[in-house]
Amino acid sequence: MKRMPAKKLRFALAGNQNSGKTTLFNQLTGSNQHVGNFPGVTVERKEGKIKGHAYAEVVDLPGIYSLSPYTKEEIVTRDYLIDAKPDGIINIIDATNIERNLYLSLQLIELGMPTVLALNMMDEMRANGNTVDIEGLSTCLGVPVVPIVASKNEGIHELVDTAIETAENHTLPTVEDFCSGPVHRCIHGVAHLIEDHADRVGVPRRFAATKLVEGDKPMAELLRLSQNEQEAIDHMVLEMERELGTDREAALADMRYQFIEEVVAQTVVKSGKSRERSRSVAADHLLTHKYLAFPIFLGIMMLVFWLTFGVIGQPLSDLLGEGVDFLNGAVSGGLTALEVNPVVRSLVVDGIITGVGTVVSFIPIIVTLFFFLSLLEDSGYMARVAFVMDKPLRRLGLSGRSIVPMLLGFGCTVPATMATRTLSSERDRRMTILLTPFMSCSAKLPIYAAFTAAFFPKSAPFIMMLLYLIGIFVGILIALFLKHLPFFRGQPIPFVMELPNYRIPSLRSVGMLLWDKARDFLQRAFTVIFVATIIIWFLQSFDPRLNPTSSEDASILATLARFIAPIFLPLGFGFWQAAVALIAGFMAKEAVVSTLAVLAGTTVDALPLALGEMFSPLAAFSFLLFTLLYTPCVAAIATVKRELGSGVQAGLVAFAQCALAWLVACLVYQVGSLIVS
After folding, report:
1. CA-closest candidate to residue 36, choices 512, 465, 473
2. Shortest CA distance to 374 belongs to which of 524, 495, 503, 461?
3. Count of C-beta atoms within a 10 Å radius of residue 318
C-alpha cells in the first residue's frame, strides 16, 4: 500500500519547445489536452493530477529556452517558479539535442529546488546508434536522470516514482557551480553581496546573482538594491568583461555551454547521424523553398479541402443527415400517434430535432478537416508554415510569432485571441488580435458546407479554399492599413524559432484532438444552439399577442426582423429570415444553419432545396462572404474585451468587423449583378 505524504505535492513541468513536454503532461495526467508540434502551442500553464497519485499535481509551463525575461512565456515560467515555489521540477529534454536543452536545465538547477531530468525521445537516440550514460549524466548535473519515451509511455512510471521520492525527501541538486575563472569570481562576489536581499524575498542566492550579472532588471527591482550595491555589482561585472574581452551575456552563455560541452563529451556517445534530422533537412529543401514553399502549402490545403468536402467528410455528413431525418420522421409519427398537442409536437420536431440535428449532421466534416490539420501539425509541417510566413508577415508590420495565434484562429477565435499573450510586443499583440477574426474559424464550416452543397456542389473544395483565402487577403489589407496608423507604427519584434524534426503523428494525439473538437461541437449543439433553436421556434410560432400562428409573416420573429432586413437588401438577401439567421450567428456561428432550417421548416436532406428557394447563387456567395467577415461570436468579443482591457474598444472592433463585412459583401453582389445582367 502506497504511503500518502503529509501534504500534497506540486510539480512544475518545464522544458524547451518541441521537447515533448505537452505529450509528457498528457501521459502524467491522462489529460485530454491537444499535443502540437509547433512552437507556442502551450499558451498558459495547465494543471492536472498525476495518474495513480491523487495527492500529486503537475503544472505544464510554457515551452522556453531560458529563464531570461524576454518573452511572455519566459516571464510566466520564471514568475511561477520563483513565486509559487513548487515542491519539485520535472525538466524534460530532447535526448537527440541534449546540448541545446541543457542550457535551460542549468538555470533550473540554479533555482535550488528538487529537480528530476526526464531524458525524452530515447527511442530516436537508440535508433541513430547513439547512447547516453544516464548515471554519468546524473552525476555531472547533480540531479536524478530518467530516460523516457513520452509518446510511447516508456519510463513514465519510473519518472513519477523518482520525482515523488525526490520531492518528498526534498533532495536538492548536489551540483551548484557550473562556472570557473572570471565568471566564477564575479558570480560568487555578487552572491555574497546580495545574500541578505535574496534570503528576504526567498530567491536562491546563486540564481539571483547570476541574473544580476546578466543585467536582469526585474531581479534587481525584486531585490531592491541600494545605489551603492548596484554600483558595486556593476564594477564586478565590468572587471569580468575586461578580463574576458566580452560582454556579460556572452560571458555567461560561454560559461554554460563550456560546461555543457564537457558533460556531453563525458556522457554522450554519438556513433551515427540523426536520421530524423537528415530526412527533415532534405524535406525542407523543398517544403521551405524560396519560391515553391507557398504554392506547395496551397496545394496541400486544396487536397485537404477536396478530401474533406468531396471524398470523405461530405458523404459522411449526408449519411448522418439521413439518420437525423429518419429520427425526425419517427418522432413526428410517434407524437402524432400519441395525439400530442400540435404545439408541443412542433417544438420537438420543427424546433429541437430540426435545429440541433441540422448542426449535428456536420460533425463528420469538422472531424475530417481537423484530422488532416492535426496530421500536418503533429508531423511538424505547420512549423514550416510559420517559418515560410515569417517574411511576408514582417512586411505587413507583424512579427513572425503572430503566425501561431493566427493559425489557431482557423480552429476557434477565442483561444487564438488568448494566444496573443505569447507576443512580446504590445503593438504586435493588439494588431494580431484585430486580424485573428479574419481567419475563418471552424464554427463557420456548417454554413459553408450547407451553402456549397446547395449552390456549388461540383466546386465545393474550390469555394471553401476561396473563402479561406479571401479572409486571409482581407486580413492582409487590414494589416497594411493598420501599420500606417500612429498607434501601430514601429518595427515588429524579431522572431526566432526552431524547426522540429518531421515525425510520424501520434494516433493518440490526433485522436484526442478529434475527440476534443467533436465534444466541443456537441456541447455547443446541445447548449447554445439548443437554446437558440427553441427561442427561434417560439418567436416564429407565435404572433405578437402570443397566439399560435400558421403564417410565418405574422410571427413575432418576422415583425421584429423586418426592421433589420432592409440593411441587407444591397447584399442580395434583404428578407427577414436571413437577418434572423445572422443575428443568431452572434451567439454561435453554427446557429446560422440551424436557424435557417427551423425557419424553412425543412429536413436536413431538403435544406439545400430550401436555401435554393431563398437565395440566388450570387446572393448565396454574398451571404457566405458576410458570414466569413462579420463578428465571430459573443464569446470571441468577450475574449477581445478581456485581452484589450476595454469594452469600448471591443465594441468598436465588433462594429468595424460588421461594417467591413457589409461593404465587401455589398461590393461583390453589386459588381456581380452588373456582370450577370
Report:
1. 512
2. 503
3. 14
- CA gyration radius, the chain: 29
Q: How far apart are CA 360 and CA 447, in angstroms?
A: 12
Query: In what helix (H) or strand (E) does residue 210 lie, and over which residues does it extend?
Result: helix 205-214
Best CA proximity match to 88, nearest among 40, 120, 56, 42: 56
Which of 38, 184, 170 shows the shortest CA–CA distance to 114? 170
What is the model's pLDDT at position 366? Answer: 77
pLDDT (0 to 100) of residue 202? 87
Contact 361, 612 (CB under 8 A): no
- Determine the Cα–Cα distance for residues 380 and 369; give it in Å rounded to an integer: 17
Q: In the structure grid, which three cell numbers stand for residue 176, read together?
A: 551548484
- Cβ atoms 399, 425 nearer than 8 A: yes
Residues 585-603 pLDDT 10s: 887 787 788 888 878 877 6
- Cβ contacts of 302 within 8 Å, gap of 6 or more: 461, 462, 465
pLDDT digit string, tens, across residues 383-415: 788 778 777 877 777 776 777 778 777 877 876
pLDDT value at 88 more than 50: yes
Residue type for 66, please?
A: S
How many Cβ atoms are within 10 Å of 133's Cβ, its own excluded? 14
DSSP 113-139: S-EEEEEE-HHHHHHTT-EE-HHHHHH
Given its phi and psi angles, is residue 18 left (phi above 0), alpha (psi -120 to 50 degrees) or beta?
left
Task: Report which DSSP code applies to 290.
Answer: T
DSSP secondary structure string for all residues of 296-331: HHHHHHHHHHHIIIIISHHHHHHHHHHHHHHHHHHH
